[in-house]
Amino acid sequence: MTYFKKPKLDQSSNVSTLIRMLRTKRPAYSADITLFIECYIVPVCKKHKGYLDNAGNYIVKIGKNPNVIFSCHTDTVHDTGGIQKLKIRNNILTLHDNESSNCLGGDDTVGCYLMLEMIKANVNGLYIFHANEEIGCIGSKYIAKNNVTLLKNIDFAIAFDRKGNNSIITHQMNQRCCSNEFSASLAMLLPDGYVSDPHGSYTDTYSYMYQIAECTNVSCGYFNQHSNKESVDLGHVMLLRDHLIRFDSRKLVKKRNPSDFDDDYNFYGYDRYESYGGKNYYSYKSNNSYESLFNFVQNNPDIITDFLNDSGYDLDYFETYYYK
């Protein structure tokens, strides 16, 4: 049975591959994510002499000395594995009306697809398909702590793991992760309309903020992530793809100093400690008690709102929870 109509897009865009990828539900550490990786990621790694590290990250290098990391993650927030039914209307991909899945998984299947297309086009860069981002950026934290040499000559880290269609994230968890100059230079390489956005929560490039000068996250065409209302704008994904396969990192501007802790928000209860690569990082001194969490939420309402919004939770969800 066919659950989606043939999209009205140029067949050279290979949109059917993206649709097939989106059908697979893949929670972290599941058999389904293993099959997904073996089907889509492993062949690319083998062809380009990439490798798998000890944390489950797949790493591919294109070019002799790339100075940019392209980042995505292979897991989704599905609560079960398996195959899900999809539908397309006006080039917007969503779950089928009869599908009970808790999310579509555009976050971050779209990022995986875009990076595979860039590798196929031989765009210079260090490509990292991160493991287990959705359960705490496990893969990127491992690299930041245990494989610092991988990041040594990298000036830019660009994740494709952001909702919407026009954001270049300049702040993650209200901490500056890239300069405005870099954001402006990156916008010139993307479709029209991309602008700086200071309201990022976090993704894998957050782990590299104090080792890499310019770290960001780029909108790649999915909406309402982490929910069964999630959708993917196939037209935007293909437009973004067409720009990325011509990506020229030589046009990027480096301005930020990663050793400077640029904190744009007064984090309540936080202290610095030495972490990944000896760089300053913030740790909340707490025993994770209810009271500590309550105080943090009470004193940081804007960052919590941004985090919940980025995670796909809306007012309807909390009103339903409240009345229950």
Mean pLDDT across every amino acid position: 86
Strand order of the largest sheet: 2-3-8-4-9-14-15-7-6
Shape: globular
Uncertain ranges: 1-12, 264-287
| CATH level-1 class of the largest domain | Alpha Beta
SS class:
alpha/beta
Succession of helices and strands: HEHEEEEEEHEHEEEEHEEEHEEHHH
CATH topology tier name of the largest domain: Aminopeptidase
Mind describing the biggest β-sheet? 9 strands, mixed
Give the number of DSSP strands: 17
Number of domains as seen in the coordinates: 2
Architecture (CATH level 2) name of the largest domain: 3-Layer(aba) Sandwich
Give an account of the 3D structure:
- The chain starts with 14 loop residues before the first helix and ends with a helix.
- The chain is globular, with a radius of gyration of 19 Å.
- With 324 residues, it is α/β, with parallel strands linked by helices.
- Strand 14 and strand 15 form a beta hairpin.
- It is built from 9 helices and 17 strands.
- It has 2 domains: 11-251, 3-Layer(aba) Sandwich (Aminopeptidase); 270-323, no CATH class.
- The model is unreliable at 1-12 and 264-287 (pLDDT under 50).
Compact description:
With 324 residues, the protein is an alpha/beta fold. It is built from nine helices and 17 strands.
